[in-house]
Amino acid sequence: MSAIDSATLVQGLIAWMRQEGVAVTRTRLMKFIYLADLHHARHHEGATITGWRWYVHSFGPMANEAYVLLDRGVREGWLTSNASSSSGEEGEPSAIFYDIVTKGAAEQLHGMGKVHRWIKTLGDDTPRLLRFVYGNTEPMVDAKEGEYLDFSSARPTDNVAPIHGRKPTRKEEKRFEEISKRLRARYEAAQASNAKIVDGPRDDAYFNDLPAEGASVNGDMILLFDKER
Amino acid sequence: MIEAEREQADSHEKAYARYVAMNDDHFKRRPSKKYPILNLRLAETEELVAFHAKRRPAVVVGTNATSIDGLKERAPSHHVECRVVMAPVYGLRSDDDVSGFGSVLATRIWHLMYRQFFPFFAWRETRTHMPPATLERGVIRLDRLQFINPSPPGLRLMPVKLSAEAMNILHATLWAYLHAEPWEELVEIKDLLRSMLPKEAEPVH
User: Fold this and answer.
1) Cβ contacts of B95 on chain A, cutoff 8 Å
2) Strand pairing category for B14-19 and A220-224
3) Would the CB atoms of B192 and A194 count as touching at under 8 Å?
4) Mean pLDDT of A84-94
5) Contact between residue B21 and residue A227 where contact means Cβ atoms under 8 Å apart
6) Which residues make beta-bridge pairs with B92?
């Protein structure tokens, strides 16, 4: 079970978004809550912080519990919200912006530096954030619109590095140098031999008899995708 | 594959298209191939293919087919003999790329255990007169060779290349991958590195 509750998570994420100068729209906030759940699931065998039922929406992963919590936050006074009269970049008729009332929640988000980094790099570009969520998160692989997401596929992905073996001995280093020297000599001899190969001429017959390649395609297409796959 | 049909039967202007998996009916005459679409110009055994492509670093492994001086003036416009052979670099697994190579396989690749893979080390540009260039470590894939026309926007050259020593071993590996008799030096280097493989990356029998 997570050490923090969903309300603390939301307030902490908003604090980080404000710290990074990211406008806290509902769409962006929703995606960072999802990413926080994903990050937790990766390191806790699929268990999320919120326990919410995420599903695929036209703007990426969504959870109805998020709307309930955000509305509750405004009602109880630990969140404020402002609706913008102009349409947001997410294509919503009007974007809703959130802010926190009291500070300090971010300090409770331990072990979530990765999520903070995502806010910093993706926060202010909603299409980029959505592309990241769609293309780089395990629950979205093969997800179908309207279906609930499965976090059990989340796995630890700390940056992989090759496993360090022992250092070569001095004798092995010398042997490697000697082999490299022979390899270089053989390679240069092969290159010299290759350069002596004489291809056929590039004359009129050559160019006239080459097969024609296809012309490039241009125009409008509307792609249709089956809902059932 | 992209299967397209006219939006309106009497117009070439717009087409609806469906992205489908290739099957045995493609590249031949079939009932679902309806009226031709002028701007697609597909003959009976031709199809439109769509690839999911990703921009990656890539290493030039062959330039012997590039254009010879003066050739371009004589070449027909549809044939440009200036392709370079490139091997793309795939990354290691990370939080930002969950599909990359894992650590055990990467370790074996670092010890030259597979002919189709070659290690690619990280690069951090420190020359102040050069544009910033950062390359993360990864794997050069000889099983994904491509013949690329070296011009933007499809290709952007970086001011860095493999060392001659690395190139020698890479080419020797490529030739072995393409079924040439492996050079004894390559076999010796592989044996030397294999003896240094950490236990965690040893094959499990």
Assistant:
1) 114, 157-159
2) parallel
3) no
4) 54
5) no
6) B101
Contact B164 A184 (CB under 8 A): yes
The pLDDT, as a whole number, for residue A214 is 66
pLDDT tens for B161-181 read: 899 999 999 999 999 999 989
> Hey, what amino acid is at B114?
Y
pLDDT at A16: 95
- What would the pLDDT profile of A8-31 be if each residue is shown by its tens digit? 999 999 999 999 999 999 999 999
Question: CB neighbours of B122 closer than 8 A, spacing ≥ 6?
Answer: B134, B135, B136, B137
- Name the minimum distance, in Å, from the CA of A162 to any CA of chain B: 4
- Residue, of B64 and B47, whose pLDDT is higher: B47
Contact B39 A168 (CB under 8 A): no
Q: What ipTM was reported for this prediction?
A: 0.77
* Closest partner CB to B98 (pick from A157, A179, A223): A157
Note whether B168 contacts A183, CB cutoff 8 Å.
Answer: yes
What would the pLDDT profile of B63-102 be if each residue is shown by its tens digit?
665 544 444 444 444 455 677 899 999 999 887 677 889 8
Residue of A nearest to B194 (CA): A165
On whether the CB atoms of residues A12 and A109 are closer than 8 A, the answer is: yes
pLDDT score of B51: 82
Residue of B nearest to A187 (CA): B168
Give A10-13's long-range contacts (Cβ < 8 A, gap of 24+). A10/A69, A10/A70, A10/A73, A10/A79, A11/A73, A11/A78, A11/A79, A11/A100, A11/A102, A11/A105, A11/A106, A12/A105, A12/A106, A12/A107, A12/A108, A12/A109, A12/A112, A13/A109, A13/A115, A13/A119
Interface residues from chain A to B (CB-CB < 8 Å): 114, 132, 136-138, 155, 157-166, 168, 172, 175-176, 179-180, 182-184, 186-187, 194, 202, 207, 210, 212-215, 217-225
What torsion do the CA atoms of A166, A167, A169, A170 make, to the nearest 10 degrees?
180
